Amino acid sequence: MSAPGTDEIVVDHLTKQYKKLRAVDDLSFRVRSGRVTGFLGPNGAGKTTTLRMLLGLVTPTAGTATFGNQKYVDLPDPVREVGAVLEASSAHRGRTGRNHLRMICRAAGLPDTRADETLEMVGLTPAANRKFKGYSLGMKQRLGIAAAMLGDPKVLILDEPANGLDPEGIRWMRDLLKALAGQGRTVLVSSHLLGEMQLLADDVVIVAAGKLIRQGPVAEVLGDMSGGVQVRVRTPQVPELTAALSELDATVTPSEDGSLVVHGVEAAAIGHAAFTARVELHELATERGDLEQVFLQLTAGKAGIR
Amino acid sequence: MSLVNAELFKVRTTSLWWIMGIILLPLYAASLLVNWANSSAGAPPPDAGVSDTQSQAIEAALEPINVATNLYTSGQFFGILIVLLLSAIIVTSEFFHLTATTTFLTTPRRESVILAKFGAAIVIGLAVWLITTVLNLIFVPPIMSNLDLGSQLGEPAVWRAIGLNALAFVLWGVLGVGAGVLIRSQIAATLILAITYVIGSAAVTLIFFLLSEYVAEWISNLQVLVPTSASQLMISGTDLPGSPPRWVGAVVLVGYAIVTGFLGTWLTKRRDIS
Question: Which segments cross the bilayer (chain B) (predicted)?
């Protein structure tokens, strides 16, 4: 394997031990560029601690978290390499949004004009001269994204960015992050909003109790865990259809609302079997497993307060 | 340099600086009036029950040159208090307003951030020094002529005192940043610094007075180890009888600035920011 570039995130046997709590426990995973990676886990799973170690804010007890093979502190120009949105409320209450961004520009050696450009990008231009304390939670999230984009970085890291956004805001962010990944950037998004992640992420990294539970492309993780797709069938002639399907090696499970859930065969085969058996169908629908079920299955018993 | 610029930008873009300015101006005016009043009070009568050293000290303090250095550095006490608090707040506000994350993401080398904060504190110290000094150069000459002492601006000792006064402002700024790192809570830092600075220096003077009266005279020489006494000593015009030489005051202050500076940087590098 060739040496990873700085736009690839490499977490290698990362561990953080607080006094009594092992917040992150021997965690290893990789995040590739050009894709949106969802970093999922119940509250307290160690997601934020992992991101903070990756960004040099928290010192790991053991292991490393790097960009390629470089630590965040060792990046020659971190603001142009990596943008991060860690908490929505991290600006001075009495400072305007524009000045918050200009402050970062000055420290990072970027021109002040970048502040206005990113404000425009996140749609905050009308509120640029308003003080931070007057911002709604959604506006604070947008300002955080603007701050992360100041250096036009190759890697974007967001911790629970959907918190506090309204449906329109969530959709806006989803489109933005997909577009950024489409430009070849690396996008790592932590969240516990699974429905949202299913729409947004290409890959997922699932953690619980500080340990890696599962990593891979969303479709693969869903496929593996829910035993493939299932088909929901509704018919007034349940015994006839069950008999017809049993010849196809399908597993048929009656569900509470009177419909049948079929595993092991595709919708087309079921339709054909029904047609040849002259069975009347009222509904025939393919259902893919959803991330929420998979997630709950995977993290069952591991969540909870530690 | 751009980091110092960024730190100063942070101070400029909140309402803190003009609040501190509004507090400083009346306090400056009050200290100028008090210094004027003290200078015109005159020497105590010979039978007033003061010791030889004390009366020598008082006489020395009333020499025109010492009156001049005292007046031309008016506002030092409160000016330095403001610089001390502003410098501490430069650090504590990062934690109070949760901006430390943004700051250390932008500049992951934390020693650079702390160095920039020291730089910004020095600039702030010099700015406040410049304001009080300009005001003094405007208001003190008329006061001096009112005291029949002449402006004394031709005396090198006066300019040396003004220069050393600048050094005091700078060193207290550095001390403030160090203190801000050590006491991370904004409210605790401002209260502790203000109280120790204002009441503490009076209390310390009293304690040292009692100790030297009832225990041993040499103890009073240790008073210079207290930062406020040290900066007072540093700017006095000529060497006053019964006090250590001026440079001792400077050395003590530089020492404190270096210790808090290094300790502050070391602590900031080690800490987890969460």
Answer: 16-37, 77-98, 118-139, 159-183, 190-211, 247-268
Q: CA-CA distance, A190 to A48, in Å (whole number)?
A: 8
Taking the CA of residue B270 and the nearest CA in chain A, the distance in Å comes to 8
The single-letter code of the amino acid at A209 is A
In a domain, A298, yes or no: no
What are the structure tokens assigned to B157, written together?
């000792």
> Is there a contact between A56 and B104 if contact means CB atoms under 8 Å apart?
yes
B118-155 residue pLDDT tens: 999 999 999 999 999 999 999 988 888 888 877 788 88
- The CATH code of the domain that includes A239 is 3.30.70.100
Across the A:B interface, residue pairs with CB atoms under 8 Å apart total 84
Tell me the HSE value of A232 on the side-chain side, using a 13 A CA sphere: 11
Which structural domain range is residue A241 located in?
A: 229-285
Indicate if A233 and A217 belong to the same structural domain: no
Is the CB of B2 less than 8 angstroms away from the CB of A52? no
- Same domain for A238 and A218, yes or no, is no
**Residue A293 counted as domain residue:** no
Can you tell me the distance from the alpha carbon of B86 to that of A286, in angstroms, rounded to the nearest whole number? 65
ipTM reported for the complex, 2 dp: 0.81
Instruction: Give the phi and the psi of residue A63 in degrees, each rounded to 5.
Output: 80, 180
A200 in the same domain as A54:
yes
**Chain B, window 99-128: residues with a beta carbon less than 8 angstroms from a chain A beta carbon:** 99, 101-109
How many distinct structural domains can be found in chain A? 2
